[in-house]
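Q: Please design a sequence for this.
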């Protein structure tokens, strides 16, 4: 069992860090799952919604109630 693996939890990061992660995704080792979780978390928080739509990342995500 590998104890060095870490689980990515988008809710633990601030909105600015999530936004940076999304914008730097091609430059960093970010999995598709992590990228989707970051986008969903921002949409839930209702942060950077216009920017996400503008760059085409929001897609089918819907912000929380």
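A: Design:
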């Amino acid at each position: 069992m590998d104890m060095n693996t870490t689980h990515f939890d988008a809710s633990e990061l601030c909105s600015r860090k999530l936004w940076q992660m999304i914008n730097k995704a091609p430059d960093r080792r970010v999995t598709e799952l992590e990228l989707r979780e970051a986008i969903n978390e921002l949409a839930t928080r209702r942060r950077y919604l216009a920017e996400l739509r503008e760059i085409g990342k929001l897609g089918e995500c819907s912000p929380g109630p």
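Q: Thanks. Anything notable?
A: The first helix runs from residue 15 to 23. The radius of gyration is 12 Å.
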